[in-house]
Amino acid sequence: MSDVKMVNLTIEGRAVSVPEGTSLLEAAKVAGVLIPHYCYHPGLPVAGVCRMCLVEVEKMPKLAPSCATAVGEGQVVHVHSEAALEARKGVLEFLLINHPLDCPICDQSGECELQDYTFQEGPAESRYHEPKRFNPVEDFGGDVLFVTNRCILCTRCVRFMDDVHHEPVLAVSERGDRAVIARASDADLTQPWAANVVDLCPVGALVSKDFLNKARAWELDRTASICSGCSQGCNTIVETRDNVVVRQKPRSNDAVNKFYLCDEGRLDYRWMNRADRIQAPSIRLHDVLSPVDWDIAVAEAVKLLKGKRAYVVASPKLSNEALFLLRQLIDASKGEGVFRCATGPEAPLPGVPDLALRADRAPNVTGAELLGFTRRDNDLLGGLRDGDVLVLAEDDLGGVDAAAVRKAGAIIVVGTVMPIGLPTPAVVLPIANVAEEEGTFTNLRGRVQRFLQAKAAPGHARPSWYALGDLNGALGIKGEYFLPGAVFADLAAQVAPFAGLSYDRLGLMGAPVAHATDEHKVAGAHVEAV
Amino acid sequence: MGYPHKSHPRETPVLSKHFGDAEARTLDGWKARGGYKALQQALGMEPTAIQQVVKDSGLRGRGGAGFPTGLKWSFMKLGDGKPHYLCCNADESEPGTFKDREIMRWTPHALIEGCAIGAYAIGAETAYIYVRGEFTEPISVMEAALAEARAAGIIGKNAMGSGKNIDIWLHKGAGAYICGEETALMNSLEGKRGNPRIKPPFPAVSGLFGMPTTINNVETLTAVPHILNNGAEWYKAMCLSNPKSTGSKLFSVCGNVAKPGNYEVVMGFSFKEFLYDLCGGPLPGRKFKALIPGGSSVPTITIEEAESVVMDYEGFLAVGTMLGSGGVIIFDDAQSMPRQLARIARFYAHESCAQCTQCREGTAWMTKILERIVAGQGTFEDLDTIFDLAEQMTGKTICVLSDSCGAPVVSGIKKFRGEFEALIKGRRSSTVAMSAGAGAR
Fold it and tell me: Over the stretch A462-521, which tens digit does the pLDDT of each residue have?
């Protein structure tokens, strides 16, 4: 910080000191003052067009747009002075004259900045008696529906597609009050990150087709989570209504995904609501699975595992905690842990360095590697020996030659859904999925990030760390945890790269593992954005 | 006044001296009339010396704002290693203004010479003339003159054998009023949508292509060769009133007047004499009622106010309006002011670039209210609403287009409130021949 010149100023009577060049709007945030704004977004170039963020700066002749005005030494800024409030009230009245005010049927209602600021400081009624402008709704392609009449022309979507996505397919067309956001001819918003315009839109003009008419914003419960769509580890908010995930949105984290989430990730949530889940633990009796109590199922698993070598096929969608407990189980039996990861084409967001939909389509590949699991994408059961106990931890062996399975002495399934086409497993232990438990993932840059529980697990399914902890405990390995943080504490104490990390201190932003970071950075260097 | 009329004896034709003289359009003809001497002289001077002469002359921007030209040039940091640009604003889109058109049409080489001197004085090797696309005749004249000047080595590499490079390019606009705003003009030149930019940074710091840029009006640049030829003192002496307003100025006169056209007078000329003597007064049987003296963006004044005005920057300010671009729009007693003002507002609503909320929505809203009043559907509250809208539209946006919509309307309502009230009370003024909304949008 020594070479950064700090500027001191007063905003709403509060003294702040911010680096030179900071905008008044950002400086006000430091002072704890939110200056209402529409077109400004920290991830986009400044446009200064909505004129909502006008503030009064002493000794300046006119009101200043706080997004486009840099701080000056000794400035005294009034955000809520009469002149500033009057100007913003004027802007709100102008924005509403052609706005349909269809809040009762608008998806944005409840999380709409036009609604919020109008309630906060807008005019109670309009003096506008002329006919409103009308334009039809337009399908922008991809997941984006454009409800033209609600648009306030803040141009965030245009700037995102131009300056962040580098796919300039949106523009302001026409002039005056005829102006509308328009697509380039034949261009759909099907680019891999295009649906971010829905989040960026401060009003209900760009809405998600997937979420259309699904829920009101105030009915949703919001939970901090991590996208499990790829190894980038974008921070998300999982939104549920009545225990059903209805939407996944990006949660900003400067170190990982800034403000964004790719379309594939944001729409990859339906599996969290799968109805065909394993509801209860069961064991095989006369070649048929019978539901039993957890204790009985665990005892049966212990009986099978005692003295046998465990061959664990773990999913890289499991948490660090679950993988750590499996690691303990493998070590105790001198067994082997393997995993595979689905892959797909990589899709970077060009305007943000080191942000992409990654080729590895699972959130914890790095965690699995750091915990000693061997990646066997093509030969998953290659290390399976005769008589091994095959533990399928959230991998259903789909697409794997079932013949190889016959080597196994027994199969124990620890998962969310039943594998199909395998010999009947001896024990089935149902676990929660990522939306139903808490834990951590390690992304491809070695950043350990927490996700929280968004909804209840079905039936008797238990969090993976809880179920595996009980199994380990029954096997005489350390187990029987009561909190995921306790599992993580043991993980941090025993696995070198995780040393020094604390579950609490990870907070909602995460922290990088020790030592491993550089190595992983090098490994992923080829995807660094220009 | 020039083509097709002769200049009035009380005019001071400096820029308009050769209007109507087809020979002045050619390079040889222009040289025979003393052309390119000033450029030759300038290329032998230090750029700062040219700036000083222009500063001493008191020349101020003729596009509307009246900013001292020499001072503007001195903002360009010479020798900073960056390419500098000169933009000549020939968009002339301000309603009621048509002086630059005549300059380009009759004396293209005068503008080329002015651009070349201006470019050299600010350390630029490239000048762009951004010309209004609808000016088809001036464009072809300018293009021919540029080709001639380039072929003769007057501009281009090693201009006039001086070893200096000065390229001048003509760029046609595509029909947007807002592209006459200097930052929108630069965006348009760069191939972007013609939206005004936020200032700061000012063009002298970061302008065209992010480089230091100066934007000058056609009339401003055309005056520069005369200043170099005759000296700053000569130019400064062309002043009948306030010493801050010097030189000759072209006024475009249109509307309900006996002799519309361009008139060139010395700063400080009596507006009353200008209107009644030079322009021939009102049409037979009519009386002047109101006028907008500086292009449609400036406040409306009554004829009584106008008669007291001396024609310079300060003189017009004294009656609450502005010299602006010098486009004098005259309304006589046969005109309905509400209808005229509604038409002006409609122009701004049509031309708003749609960036700023107040302008995009405000100009359109104001137009709708005015047209409703003209149609006999107005209320007294509407007048208050218009005042309030104008207040919201003034000083709060990136450029001054929305201010420009409010200024003539608000001043017009204040000064001709009776006409508005008559319409509102349902006694439609006998002079309103048609309802509002007539004419193509």
Answer: 999 999 999 999 999 999 999 999 999 999 999 999 999 999 999 999 999 985 444 444
Mean pLDDT for A235-254 is 96
Claim to verify: residue A149 and residue A199 sit in the same structural domain: yes
- What are the chain B neighbours of A172 within 8 Å (beta carbons)? 193, 354
Least Cα distance to A301 among A487, A482, A475 occurs for A475
Band (B79; pLDDT cuts 50, 70, 90): very high
User: Which pLDDT belongs to residue A401?
Assistant: 81
Please state the pTM of the whole predicted model: 0.93
Residues of B within 8 A of A95 (CB-CB) are 357, 361
Same domain (yes/no): A137, A215: yes
> For residue A109, is it within any domain?
no
**A130–B369 C-beta distance less than 8 A:** yes
**A157-185 mean pLDDT:** 96
CA-CA-CA-CA dihedral for B172, B178, B182, B187, to nearest 10: -70
Regarding whether B192 and B304 lie in a shared domain, the answer is no
Task: Please name the residue of chain A whose CA is at the shortest distance from the CA of residue B395.
Answer: A62
**Number of compact structural domains in chain B:** 3
Q: Can you tell me the ipTM of this complex?
A: 0.91
Name the residue range of residue A415's domain.
Answer: 282-527
For A10-40, give one letter per residue: b (16+ CB within 10 A) or e.
ebbeeebebeeebbbbbbbbebebebbbbbb
β-strand pairing of A447-451 with A310-314: unpaired
Provide mean pLDDT across the span B358-379.
96
Q: What is the pLDDT of residue B429?
A: 47
Structural domain includes residue A138: yes
- Give residue-wise pLDDT tens across range A78-105: 999 999 999 999 999 999 999 999 999 9
Closest CA to A180 of A170, A172, A188: A172
Picking from A70, A92, A114, the residue at the C-terminal end of a domain is A92
Q: Which of A51, A152, A171 sits opposite B397 (nearest CB)?
A: A51
pLDDT band, residue B435 (cuts 50/70/90): very low
**Is residue A204 assigned to a domain?**
yes
Find the residue in B nearest to A67 (Cα).
B198
What is the domain-level CATH number for residue B326?
3.10.20.600
Q: Which residue of B has its CA nearest to A153?
A: B355
> Are both B229 and B346 inside the same structural domain?
no
DSSP state at residue A334? T
| Nearest CB to A91 within list B358, B372, B395 | B358
Q: Distance between CA atoms of A87 and A91, rounded to whole angstroms?
A: 6
Structure tokens at B58: 């008191």
Q: How far apart, in Å, are the Cα atoms of A179 and each of B218, B349, B353? A: 31, 11, 8
Question: What does the pLDDT look like over B270-292, one tens digit per residue?
Answer: 999 999 999 999 999 999 999 99
In terms of residue numbers, what domain contains B359?
Answer: 337-424
Question: Which residues in chain A have their CB less than 8 angstroms from residue B347's CB?
Answer: none
Nearest-CA distance from A86 to chain B in Å?
A: 8
Q: How far is A95 from chain B (nearest CA, A)?
A: 7
CB spacing of A98 vs B361 below 8 angstroms: yes
Question: Which of B355, B364, B395 lies closest to A49 in CB terms?
Answer: B355
Residues 114-153 of A with CB under 8 A from B: 127-128, 130, 152-153
Site from A118, A177, A181, A203 to mutate, B interface, most B CB atoms within 10 angstroms: A177
> Which residues on chain A are in Cβ contact (under 8 Å) with B178?
175
> Does the residue B4 lie in any domain?
no
